[in-house]
Every structure is written in structure tokens, then in C-alpha cells.
Design a protein that fits this description.
The complex is a heterotrimer. Chain A has helices at 16-25, 36-41, 51-66; strands at residues 6-14, 71-79, 87-99, 102-111, 114-124. By secondary structure, chain A is an alpha+beta fold. Chain A has a single domain, classed as Thiol Ester Dehydrase, Chain A. A five-stranded antiparallel sheet of chain A has the order 1-3-4-5-2. The longest helix of chain A has 16 residues, at 51-66. Chain B has a single domain (3-111, 209-378), classed as Thiolase/Chalcone synthase (Peroxisomal Thiolase, Chain A, domain 1, 3-Layer(aba) Sandwich), CATH 3.40.47. Chain C folds into two domains: 3-155, Roll (Thiol Ester Dehydrase, Chain A); 169-294, no CATH class. Chain C is built from five helices and 13 strands. Chain C has helices at 3-16, 31-41, 57-60, 74-84, 182-189; strands spanning 23-24, 89-99, 109-124, 127-140, 143-155, 194-198, 204-205, 220-224, 228-237, 249-256, 261-266, 275-282, 288-294. Chain C has a five-stranded antiparallel sheet with strand order 1-3-4-5-2, sandwiched between helices. A five-stranded antiparallel sheet of chain C has the order 11-10-9-12-13. In chain C, strands 7-6-8 form a three-stranded antiparallel sheet. In chain C, helix 1 (3-16) packs antiparallel against helix 4. The longest helix of chain C is centred in the N-terminal third of the chain and has 14 residues, at 3-16. The radius of gyration of chain C is 34 Å and the shape is elongated. The chains are: A alpha+beta, B alpha/beta, C alpha+beta. Chains in contact: A-B, A-C, B-C. Strand 5 (194-197) of chain B pairs antiparallel with strand 9 (228-237) of chain C. Chain C: Residues 28-148 form the FAS1-like dehydratase domain. Chain C: Residues 226-280 form the ChsH2 C-terminal OB-fold domain. Chain C: InterPro entries: ChsH2_C, ChsH2_Znr, FAS1-like_DH_region, HotDog_dom_sf, NA-bd_OB-fold, Thioester_dehydratase-like. Chain C: This is DNA-binding protein.
């Protein structure tokens, strides 16, 4: 795990089931995350993933790569294009800093509409 | 023909290129020239599609190509793909030009999407018999043929789906493919939503932003260049009786693509080979049903037998007729067939990611349902 | 007083209130919710049996299905002000979470919030809007365990034409008509389905053209069809939307008794071989559209 290391590309299929089950599991009951008719009425193309789920996915992407011993210290994300139902969300990542056991990983999650999320995750790995 | 493809180039294939179509064209042409070991100043001919928004002179300006002695455009959407190479080869053979670059570049996903209803196209008088009635997308126009084909030959949606499964399987191992690492199963195909019955979402090609370019020159000139040339053994266009663009619904038989039959006869005659000599088939796959009909028109199997031919495994990489090893337009990218020609070149060179062994001849076809074209590429 | 200064004044007033009172999570940190989260996210991390995934911190204090904001919640108060000013849409733009330690099963967290910043109005891709930034701190007892800076964009939706739930026929694509085809559309207006017939050899032809491909004559006439035929092929169109049509709808290619094929929309359950007849619908004074319906006598 060195500066410049790339994380393996990871794809998430944002099926309606995925969008809805993650919204409910994060206790986010905003209609745009589970009711397509209302989402469209509000000007969206479809239901879309909520921000708590994006945070969760970014954390999972990094810990899947770093292993279960890594401790997550910080997840900072900025949202861009919504990730709608039926989108494929592709994650890319790279180690950008390392200080002793503390690593900083930059993460991008991209759909066909553009960057859904750009983020920075700080983790602590065992010596 | 005394001509060969000596360079291929492409941009990345994406859903949102973030740059102009002219930039995509210029990047693809420059990449193809670099691949060919040539300079922009070596180019004196350019060919593209009528549908391309990038004028030859604009591309020449960006590349710094000083003078052109030949420029040409081909009509009928994706049917133009192989015909651009035919134009280039004829130009080279007649001395109209020495080095001709064929290109196609568009923001077909982030910009103008062919899959949507093109209300502007309704101004065409031929389209007055389809668009106002609600038939206004390529998928729906192909679906009309597909329904009749199913009725006459007992083909099913699963028979169409097998083409998608093969393309996606090949794309899954092609890092340049949009659907790299994402194969599908027949169940996935059957579960995908209807677009225009009997076509499902996974019967339809993707929409892509990107560009592809091909460099054509004479066989003699090709000998002095770094890459193994892909010789143009035959190239032809084809249009048939009572031809329309996508809506040739008034012929006796709706289960055929007679314009592809014209291409097939021309290719076999001019190349001196037949269907059994083809080592790799790059067949235009904007919609799966027309891949089945092409197999029949090109003589790989009898009428109505394509579904059995496909189910036999013949189209797998280790089968009798490996289909679209790059993943086709369903799997790699939709570049109006030009990415398929580039794959044909790689298969002849022996440099494809899903390389088929001992390739002597590659067949490439262009858009179906429209006046079309085809190529046989081969070793020297 | 302008909108801008009014909003800024309200923002300052809310910010001055400082930290809201601690709000207790509905449930203590618990395994069922952790497992639901892991299942939905697809995370197979083996370590979350006694501690929760850190990214779940906000989940514990979400308002829930019928949740209402507390009266001193600064984000809720700021949103209400912006709603009133016409900035009615909301999208989350940033979430920066710092975890001081992992939360253990059984711990009961509470959360407090302050309003950190309100900036605007700014032009964004989604319309003109205000960025509202809050800072939340989660506590177990008096111990801060996690913090978050959260930013939302409250914007005035960009002007868009109102969505049309009904698709009136007038919006449908109109046919291009020229000298060679006007006899057909004129026929529709008069309730006649016309088939081009060559004035030289009598060939019936559809779609029509100015010169007979059989005999070369350029004096096309027409006959009036009985308007009856059978479905030769059809499409059920689902996607994308088509101007003036409600999806799904059927387009059928019909072989007329006279021998030519014509393609119109079909109002009915389609099948190949289905007997149909033509009907005409007046769109306006200039245009009448033909379509098919199943024949009553079939």
C-alpha cells in the first residue's frame, strides 16, 4: 500500500432494489429514493441513491481493498451527478498520501452521466 | 484491391466525453496516423459519413493536414462504415490520393442520441409513412422485421438474446469495452425491459461518445510502414429492390436483408473466398435480430436456421465462426461500425485482446436495415 | 430589504443560537440495523459484530419514516426560510464525516447541530440557490464520537416546461406532404384510404412515388381502398416516449385486401393475421390521421 497504488475498479449495479433497500437501511425515507412516480414528478429521471448510501459505498470500496483490519477515520465526499436506478456506478481509487500507518485514498464513483461522487477516505492500517 | 489498412486509432469510449466532436475526430485521426507511422502531412484524402458533423476541412485544420486531393462522404448512417474504406481504397487504386484516413466521431450519448425520436427527421418524405404513426426509433423499426421473422421461423426472444450474451462475453475480457468485466446471462437478457416488443433493452446496442479512424494506403506503400497491413480483399456497398432507410416494409419478404445479400455476393466474388473461409466475423450488431438475418444472407447457414447455428456455439471464440471478439456494439462501443473494422485489422495483425488463432480472413459488415456495405480483410 | 439580506439576517439569527439540544437516537446501536445495512450495501466485512460500520453514524439519528425536525434544529429552520423565499428544491452536495472511534453495540448516541454557513445566491446547474452548511456532533454521554460537516444546495428549480401528463394528438409528429403524396392525405380528410394506381399500367403501389417502376409512366392516379386487411407484422412500443403518444402503443403493418401494405397505429390487441379496418381521426383542419382497429366481423 504505497502512494500511487490503484484500487481495483469496482462496479455497482444500481438496480431499483438496490436504491430502495439501501435508502431504507439508512433510514432515509425521502420519496425520491423509493417512489419513481414522485421522483419523476419532482423533475428526476428516476429514483436515485441517497447520500448516506454513497458514503457507505465509498467506505466499503476502501475497506474491501484495505482489508478488515483497516480502521476508517474519515470519509469526505462531494456529490455530482445523481446515481439513478439502472445506472452502473463505477468506482476508481488511488492512494495519494501515506504517513506511517495513515493512508489517504482518493475515490471517484462515476456513472454514464458523469462523476457521481468524488471523495477522500483516511484509514489507519496495521503496522 | 491493391490497398490495405495500415493504421487504426480511437479515443476512449465513454458516455460523456466532455469534449467536442471535432476534438474526438482529431484525436482519433492523430492516433491512427501515429499507429501507421505516418505524419499528418502524408495525408491527402479524408472520408467520413454524411451523418458526421466534422467537415473534412475542419479535421484537416486541426491535424495540420496541408492539402487534400480527395474527400468524400457516404450516406445512410451505419451502413456507411465499410464503404468509407471502399472509397479510400478506390481513391488509392486510381491515384486520386496516396494516404486516405476514414473517420467517424460523435457524442452519441451525451449529445445527439439516435435512440430518441428524431422529430427533425420527419421532414423527410420517406419518413412520412412511419414517424407520424409513432414509429420513430431505430429499435422500433427493427422490431417490425423481428416480429415477422419470429412468426415465420419460430425464432424466440431467447434466440436474439444469445447474440447479446456472446457479445457481452467477449466484451467482458476487452479492457477497452464499456462493458468490460460485465458479462450477462440469457436470464439477464430475458429480465431486461421491453423497448419495442419483441426487442428488449439488452437487444439494443449502447450509445457511445467517441471516435475511430482508419488509415488506408496502397499495398506497396504499406510494405514500408511499421505495422502488418490488413489487406482489403474485397469491399462493396449494397442496396436492393424497393429500398428504404430502416423501413423497407413493402418487399415480398420481411425476413430478409436483401441489401446484405448484394454485399455478400460482391464480397465472395471479389475476394475469391466463401463463407467457409472466414476466420472471424465482425457483424454489425445495433440490434440482435439482424445478426441472425445477416448470418443467413451471408451464407453461413440456411434461411431460418440462424437460431440453431447460434445455439450450436459456432460464434464462440473457439467456434467455427467467432463473432465480434471485441464485444461488438452491444459490448464494446457504438461507433457506427467503425470500431468493428478496427477489430478486423487487429485480428489480421494478430494483436487483438481476444485474438483468434491463425486468422487469414476477417469479414466485416456495416449497418443493417439501411443501404449497407462490407469488407473482407486478410493477410498479404 | 432584498431577499438576499433578509436571508442572510435570518441565517445569522439561527447561527447565533449555537448548538441545538442533544437529540437521542431512536434505538441504541444494534445488530439488526447493522446487518440490514451490511446486506443492502453488500458489505461482507467480518468485523461488524460488536461495532458498527463508521459510515452508519448518521443512520442512528435519522428522523425515520414519520420524523419531524425538532424546533431548534438549525438545518430545518434554515430550509423553511429558503422554502419561503422560493428556493424549494434540496440536494445534498457534501458530507465530511470524521470518526473519533467505532461505536459499540448497545451504545446510545445523541446528536447536536449548528448552522455553520449560508452562502448565496449562486448560479448552479440546477438553478439559482443557497449552500447551507451545518456541523453535527454525535455523543455517547458527554464523549464526542463523530463529527460531520454537511452541505445542501437549496435552489429555485430552473424554469422548465410543466410535464404534460396527457399527450394531446395535436402534439404528434405531422407528416411531411408533397406533390407526390398529397392525394393520400387529402383522401384521409375525406374519409378515403387511397392507394396509388399507375395511370399507365395500373400497378398499385404504396408508399407512392411520381414514376411507375414497372412502366415508367408519370401520371399516377389512385383507387379508394375498402380499408380492410390483416396484420402482417407489428411493434409494441414502450421506450422512449414518442411525441403525442401514450406508451405502450401498437404500430401495425397491414396487408390490405388490394395487396399493398400500409403502416398505422393499431388500437387493440395485436397479432399477426388479425383482421383490421381503417378509421380516421381528424386532428385539425389540415390533417386527418388514419389508424387501424380490429374488425368487428372477424
Amino acid at each position: 500500500m504505497r502512494i500511487g497504488d490503484s484500487l481495483p475498479e469496482w462496479h455497482v449495479e444500481a438496480t431499483p432494489t438496490f436504491v430502495i433497500s439501501t435508502a431504507i437501511a439508512t433510514r432515509d425515507f425521502q420519496d425520491v429514493h423509493h417512489d419513481r412516480d414522485l421522483a419523476i414528478k419532482r423533475g428526476s429521471k428516476d429514483i436515485f441513491i441517497n447520500i448516506l448510501t454513497t458514503t457507505g459505498l465509498v467506505q466499503r470500496y476502501v475497506t474491501d481493498w484495505a482489508g478488515p483490519e483497516a480502521l476508517v477515520r474519515q470519509v469526505n465526499i462531494r456529490l455530482g451527478a445523481p446515481c439513478y436506478a439502472y445506472d452502473t456506478l463505477k468506482f476508481f481509487g488511488q492512494v495519494v498520501e501515506r504517513e506511517n500507518q495513515e493512508l489517504t485514498v482518493e475515490v471517484v464513483g462515476r456513472t454514464g452521466h458523469g462523476d457521481h461522487v468524488t471523495g477522500v477516505v483516511k484509514i489507519e492500517v496495521p503496522a | 484491391m491493391n490497398a490495405a489498412i495500415v493504421g487504426i486509432g480511437a479515443t476512449d469510449f465513454s458516455k460523456n466525453s466532455g469534449r467536442s466532436e471535432l476534438q474526438l475526430a482529431a484525436e482519433a485521426v492523430r492516433a491512427a496516423l501515429t499507429d501507421a507511422g505516418l505524419e499528418p502531412s502524408d495525408v491527402d484524402g479524408l472520408v467520413s459519413f454524411t451523418m458526421d458533423t466534422n467537415a473534412e476541412i475542419a479535421v484537416a485544420r486541426e491535424l495540420g493536414i496541408p492539402e487534400l486531393t480527395f474527400f468524400s462522404r457516404i450516406h445512410y448512417g451505419g451502413g456507411a462504415a465499410c464503404a468509407t474504406v471502399q472509397q479510400a481504397a478506390m481513391a488509392v487504386a486510381t491515384g486520386a490520393a496516396k494516404v486516405v484516413v476514414c473517420y467517424r466521431a460523435f457524442n452519441e450519448r451525451s449529445g445527439h442520441r439516435f435512440g430518441q425520436v428524431q422529430t427533425a427527421a420527419a421532414a423527410n418524405i420517406d419518413n412520412s409513412w412511419s414517424y407520424p404513426m409513432g414509429l420513430g426509433t431505430p429499435a422500433a423499426m427493427v422490431a417490425m422485421f423481428a416480429r415477422r421473422y419470429m412468426h415465420e421461423y419460430g425464432a424466440t426472444s431467447e434466440d436474439f438474446g444469445r447474440i447479446a450474451v456472446i457479445d457481452r462475453k467477449h466484451a467482458a475480457t476487452n479492457p477497452h469495452a464499456w462493458f468490460h468485466n460485465r458479462p450477462i446471462t440469457l436470464d439477464d437478457h430475458q429480465a431486461s425491459r421491453w423497448i419495442a416488443e419483441p426487442l428488449r433493452l439488452l437487444d439494443c446496442c449502447q450509445e457511445t461518445d467517441g471516435g475511430v479512424a482508419l488509415v488506408v494506403t496502397s499495398a506497396e506503400h504499406a510494405r514500408d510502414l511499421p505495422n502488418k497491413p490488413a489487406h482489403i480483399k474485397a469491399a462493396t456497398q449494397g442496396s436492393a429492390v424497393d429500398q428504404f432507410t430502416m423501413t423497407s416494409y413493402y418487399r415480398d419478404d420481411l425476413t430478409r436483408l436483401p441489401e446484405m445479400g448484394v454485399v455478400a455476393r460482391g464480397l465472395w466474388k471479389r475476394s475469391g473466398i466463401g463463407p467457409s473461409d472466414v476466420d472471424v466475423a465482425v457483424l454489425y450488431d445495433h440490434f440482435t435480430p439482424f445478426v441472425l438475418v445477416q448470418l443467413e444472407e451471408l451464407g453461413f447457414c440456411g434461411r431460418g436456421e440462424a437460431r440453431d447455428f447460434v445455439a450450436s456455439g459456432a460464434l464462440e471464440l473457439d467456434g467455427d465462426l467467432p463473432l465480434n471478439p471485441h464485444g461488438g456494439q452491444l459490448g464494446e462501443a457504438y461507433l457506427h461500425g467503425m470500431n468493428g473494422i478496427a477489430e478486423g485489422v487487429r485480428q489480421v495483425r494478430g494483436t487483438a485482446v481476444n485474438q483468434v488463432g491463425g486468422v487469414e480472413h476477417v469479414l466485416v459488415t456495416a449497418g443493417t436495415g439501411v443501404p449497407t456495405s462490407g469488407l473482407v480483410l486478410g493477410q498479404g | 430589504m432584498t431577499d438576499k439580506s433578509a436571508i442572510e439576517k435570518e441565517a445569522a439569527r439561527i447561527a447565533e443560537r449555537g448548538e441545538s439540544a442533544p437529540r437521542l437516537a431512536r434505538d441504541p446501536v444494534n445488530l439488526p440495523m447493522i446487518n440490514n445495512w451490511l446486506e443492502a450495501i453488500g458489505d461482507q466485512h467480518p468485523g461488524y459484530t460488536e461495532v458498527a460500520p463508521p459510515a452508519m453514524v448518521q443512520v442512528w439519528t435519522m428522523g425515520g419514516l414519520h420524523g419531524q425536525r425538532t424546533s431548534d434544529d438549525p438545518l430545518g429552520a434554515m430550509m423553511a426560510i429558503l422554502d419561503e423565499a422560493g428556493f424549494t428544491s434540496v440536494v445534498a452536495t457534501n458530507s465530511d464525516q470524521t470518526y473519533h472511534r467505532y461505536l459499540r453495540v448497545g451504545e446510545h448516541v445523541s446528536v447536536t447541530s449548528t448552522l455553520e454557513d449560508v452562502t448565496g445566491p449562486k448560479k448552479t446547474a440546477l438553478g439559482e440557490g443557497w449552500f447551507v452548511t451545518t456541523r453535527s456532533t454525535w455523543y455517547v454521554g458527554d464523549e464526542p464520537v463523530a463529527e460531520m460537516r454537511f452541505r445542501v444546495l437549496k435552489c429555485r428549480p430552473a424554469e422548465k416546461p410543466a410535464p404534460q401528463p396527457e399527450a394531446p394528438r395535436a402534439q404528434a409528429i405531422r407528416p411531411a406532404i408533397n406533390r407526390d403524396t398529397e392525394y393520400f392525405w387529402e383522401g384521409c380528410k375525406q374519409g378515403e384510404l387511397r392507394i396509388q394506381r399507375c395511370g399507365g399500367c395500373g400497378l398499385l403501389r404504396h408508399p407512392p412515388g411520381p414514376m411507375c417502376p414497372e412502366c415508367g409512366a408519370t401520371k399516377p392516379k389512385y383507387l379508394v381502398s375498402d380499408g380492410r386487411g390483416v396484420v402482417y407484422s407489428y411493434v409494441v412500443h414502450h421506450h422512449p416516449q414518442v411525441p403525442g403518444k401514450q406508451t405502450p402503443f401498437v404500430v401495425a403493418l397491414v396487408e390490405l385486401d388490394e395487396g399493398v401494405r400500409m403502416l398505422f397505429e393499431l388500437d387493440g390487441e395485436p397479432s399477426i393475421g388479425l383482421p383490421v379496418e381503417v378509421v380516421f381521426t381528424k386532428i385539425d383542419d389540415e390533417l386527418t390521421m388514419p389508424s387501424w382497429r380490429p374488425r368487428a366481423d372477424r
